[in-house]
Amino acid sequence: LRCLRVQFRGLFQMILVLGIGGSFPYGFHISVINYPSVHIRKFINETWIERHGSPLHPETIMLLWSFIVSVYGIGGFLGSICCGKYQTEQINNFFLVECQMCTNLIMLVAALFMAFSKTAKSFEMILVGRFLYGIGTGFSLNIHPQYVGEISPKKLRGFTNSTVAVFLTLGKLTGQVIGLREILGSEALWPWLLASSGLSALVQLVTLPFFPDSPSYLLIQKGNEEACRKAIRKLWGEGDHQAEIDDIMKEKVTMTSTKTLRVLEVIKERSLRWQLYILMTVMTTLQLCGINAIYFYSFEVFHTAKFEEYLIPYVSLGVGLCECLSSILYSYIPYSVSHFCLQDNLGPFCFLIFLGILALSAIFIYLYLPETKGKSIMEIKAEFNKLNFGKKETSVTENSFPKEQLFCTKL
Question: Is 409 helix (H, G, I), strand (E, B) or coil?
């Protein structure tokens, strides 16, 4: 294990840097928003009184608070769409490094809005900052998994991909820790609590330029084999990596006749059918499993469960710690308003719905998701072709790929 750490030191360092500015901020902003909720609602009302001379109705305050919480998801949605479209159009002349650095700048601007919102007496700045945070994490969550997968060798790809979830849960846990009233969750310091994630963006912005672009990008998109080999040596250490380079070359050959597909064309394309089924199942389960109800509205959920007010932050922290430990252990063993409405109407029985969704999803994934550990992208594609084309066409699809390979989508 020690030899592995020494050999792949560059890879592990880059995984750390990518995680700090990748999925970490997403997890951070899911959990941290609960802790200053009382202070922010009070600030909204005080600001309104100072402007108009009369207080807001409690329901109006709650509505504005709901906008602040949910606008993060709207920003994330727009960021994801823009990132996909931008990568489709610019993939031949734009590095993932530069794209992620631009994302860091968006996050820093958002942090400034948060930090000075109280000084400027503007709750609108919180709304704008939260929206920009969403856009930034929308970009990061597209770039981070792609980049981590591209920089890792085949034998470590499963582990490196799981670090995306590890950093996400570490972000949630960090938000819960520094959100405690003893640290930054007090009435005086809550703007700095919301702005603190700008630090992770700054760290990545400063350190990321010292790392190379992914080997597959350098070889496939840039056609620079020497730069590819140099990046591999920097990330994976010295050694015989010819087999990995050969896999990248095979991928390059199959992509010589790629074409860009629109969303409807992707949906109709038979060779991508089961990939879409599994992707939609996993992402839908992630949103409907109930975890977003716990994080976005954890204080309300625990308050409904009759927990003492002063204990709720620590109970929420315990939930985050359990998830973080589970995510770390998993890496070594080969979210929405509607949830709150369900909690309100069904009480604790709403989690039975989430249990059913998880059970169905687990069965589906167990039956149809091919094993990806230790396999190249082309080998994984061959496994999916067995599902897409059936057993009768398996021999054909395993030995020869379609003349027109599918590479990316265009909205």
Answer: strand
Lowest mean pLDDT among 161-170, 226-235, 288-297, 331-340: 331-340
CA–CA dist 299, 312 (Å, integer):
6
The distance from CA 95 to its chain's CA centroid, rounded to whole angstroms, is: 19
Q: Please, are residues 245 and 232 in contact by the beta-carbon 8 Å criterion? A: yes
- Residue that the structure tokens 């020494």 belong to: 6
List phi, psi (to 5°) of 306.
70, 30
Q: What would the DSSP string read from start to end of 122-155? A: -HHHHHHHHHHHHHHHHHHHHHHHHHHHHHS-GG
Encoded tokens for 50: 């100072």
pLDDT tens digits, 281-311: 887 887 777 666 666 666 666 777 777 777 7
- Which one, of 353, 341, 369, lies nearest residue 278 by Cα? 369
Torsion of Cα atoms, 278 then 281 then 282 then 286, to 10° = 170
Please state the φ and ψ torsions of residue 196, each to the nearest 5 degrees: -65, -25
How far is the C-alpha of 353 from the C-alpha of 234, rounded, in Å? 48
Q: List CB contacts of 113: < 8 A, sequence separation 6 or more.
A: 125, 126, 128, 129, 132
Per the model's pLDDT, the better-predicted residue between 348 and 406 turns out to be 348
Side chain identity at residue 20, one-letter code: I
Residue pair 194/36 in contact by the 8 Å Cβ criterion: yes
Largest CA distance in the chain: 76
Encode pLDDT of 96-124 as tens digits.
Answer: 778 888 999 999 999 999 999 999 999 99
Q: Is the pLDDT of residue 381 over 50?
A: yes
* Alpha-carbon separation of residue 303 from 17, 273, 306 (angstroms): 37, 44, 5
